[in-house]
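BUG: 3D viewer hangs when loading the predicted structure for this chain

Environment: internal workstation, default settings.
Expected: structure renders.
Actual: progress bar stalls at 90%.

Input used:
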Amino acid sequence: MKKLMILVAIMIAISATFKGDGGVDKTEDILRLHIIASSNNNEDQAVKLLVRDAVLELEREIFSPSSYEDARELLIKHGNELLDTVNEVLAENGFDYGCMLSLGKYDFPDRTYGDVTYPADEYNALRIVLGEGAGENWWCVLFPPLCIVETPEADLNSEEHSEDETIEFDSIILKFLRKLFKIEK
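Structure tokens produced before the viewer hung:
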């Protein structure tokens, strides 16, 4: 009976966050990272990816939120570190333009991570605009943490990555349920 109650509680928690069709229902509890390049020339696009890598590395060090509110507070608390990190990457690579960081609500297109679809909508995001901010962008989900970069050199927007490519995720909840009910993966 205790196992059944735990399972029901977990399922309620999951259904409160996600739609039954695999889509996200509560966009206000999602925090995205959005980096916009200065332009579409090769150099500006390359430095955008270097900035992405540096920001994600810093996030790994300082970022372990348990809720959207925690995530937002951590970004505000470490805003100067984020700004310094981005400006250092730009300067180290010979770019004399700066950046602007803002935390707000922005429009995003559909995106699917594993079995979960984040529908086109307005989401809370940390937006990093490099220079003129007129180039192609890169974005991911910071909370819950779904920012995935295959390698530091990987360009997730390049043609070598198919939109039909499947990315597999493993969930702590699923691991717990597998262990609880002794189910093999």
